[in-house]
Fold:
Amino acid sequence: MAAPWYWEQAKRALARRDPILGKIIRQHPRIALEPRGEPFFTLARSIVGQQISVKAAARIWDRLVALAPQVSPRQILDAGCEKLVDCGLSGRKAEYVADLAGHFVDGRLQVEQWSDLEDEAVVAELVRVRGIGRWTAEMFLIFNMLRPDVLPLDDLGLQRAVCLHYLKGRSVSARTLRRVSRTWAPWRSVATWYLWRSLDPVPVEY
Structure:
């Protein structure tokens, strides 16, 4: 699957402006963000990954896929919350994923109408759904809508990478993260993706 249209342009601009990021980009020459076409898949996987490690999320997701191979809203609703909990989801996350599936089945989410909306307007639509906060909405913007300039300030992986590469291990505040990221605009999604790769070379699929 092809990388987003802006990927090569963004890589060149980021490498030129930020030597630290340029080194990371050169270390990962043959991989790029792979777009997902299924909005429900992206949102459900993001809910599964909230506040747990990438490895733990992958294990739970593998069990969920075994339960509902197409990961479609209808399959999830038919499975029910109890079987979602058996996959390793907390009771609350199981409710969130099932509720999300209900939004898709009954048409309360009109994702196809969002392409003309600004990023913040999409976030506002998504956070109305139980279990979807700003971080999950930002993952949707990056991985499904392929928006190029998203900075997920609450993302633990991004915070860890900035601490490691820019701050010599010191903790990072949202203010510092914004300051470090100024030179990345308008390609902050791409910068974030490469900083994730500096911690884990295998891309997460949302």
About this structure: Residues 77 and 98 are 6 Å apart (CA to CA).
